[in-house]
């Protein structure tokens, strides 16, 4: 079963310095039909004006993933991490028992576009953690996050994986799924067919349940980049 979440139907917030699209309920946007999916709680598609950003604020018991699409994030947190996150790199911050951080557009002239994704952990408390890494941009599937950090992946406090899919010259890819797990696809670039006449475009999402395989077929000439969440 596949349920589409169209980009234009997402919740919206515009504060002047920040323009945000919310896949799931967040902040002042509330929709009881879109509260998350399994342990995936937030996908915010954010655009931040030059030099602006999120002032220091706190988090607790949440796994927070950031992926910059354009520009660069200037990150600072109470655990002593002062970092810059450029386009294409993944950052995973485990809030643990509590952490404060700020995130700003590192540029004074260029816009910042990034995804902020929250995963509810299966372990509460503990020391905060910070991970940041650039992964291969090769075509096909690249595993980004696992529960144990195997093979150089980022490790997360939850029974889930995050997989990056890129299709350019290759036109299709098949993911071997588990009928007992839940899957969510978020499209970043390009157009994909998920079969049965289902097409997803940038900003679109798809909840996928009760399947043994997921077929991805590239549509058109544009490169495809998408995120696949493998959830309990």
From TrEMBL:
Record domain Pirin N-terminal: where? 11-119
Keyword list, A-Z: Iron, Metal-binding
Mind telling me which PANTHER family this protein's record contains?
Answer: QUERCETIN 2,3-DIOXYGENASE
> What CDD domains does this protein map onto?
cupin_Yhhw_N (cd02910)
User: Which molecular function terms from Gene Ontology are attached?
Assistant: metal ion binding
Residues annotated for Fe cation binding in this entry: 57, 59, 101, 103
Cite the Quercetin 2,3-dioxygenase C-terminal cupin domain residue spans from the record.
144-231
- Give the cofactor note text: Binds 1 Fe cation per subunit.
Listed name of the protein: Pirin family protein
- A Pfam match: Pirin_C_2
């Amino acid at each position: 079963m596949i349920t589409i979440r169209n980009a234009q139907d997402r919740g919206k917030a515009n504060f002047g310095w920040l323009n945000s699209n919310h896949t799931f309920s967040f902040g002042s946007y509330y929709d009881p039909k879109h509260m998350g999916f399994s342990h995936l709680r937030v996908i915010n598609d954010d655009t931040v004006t030059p030099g602006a950003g999120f002032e220091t604020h706190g988090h607790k018991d949440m796994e927070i993933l950031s992926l910059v699409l354009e520009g660069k994030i200037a990150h600072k947190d109470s655990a002593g991490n002062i970092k810059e996150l450029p386009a294409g790199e993944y950052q995973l911050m485990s809030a643990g028992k509590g952490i404060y951080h700020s995130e700003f557009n590192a540029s004074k002239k260029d816009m910042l576009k990034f995804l902020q994704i929250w995963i509810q952990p299966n372990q509460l408390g503990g020391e905060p953690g910070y991970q940041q890494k650039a992964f291969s941009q090769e075509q096909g599937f690249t595993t980004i996050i696992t529960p144990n950090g195997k093979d150089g992946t980022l490790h997360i406090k939850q029974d889930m994986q995050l997989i990056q899919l890129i299709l350019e010259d290759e036109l299709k890819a098949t993911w071997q799924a588990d009928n007992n797990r839940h899957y969510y696809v978020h499209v970043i670039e390009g157009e994909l067919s998920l079969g049965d006449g289902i097409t997803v475009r940038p900003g679109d999402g798809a909840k996928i349940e009760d399947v043994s395989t997921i077929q991805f077929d590239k549509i058109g000439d544009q490169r495809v980049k998408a995120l696949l969440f493998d959830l309990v």
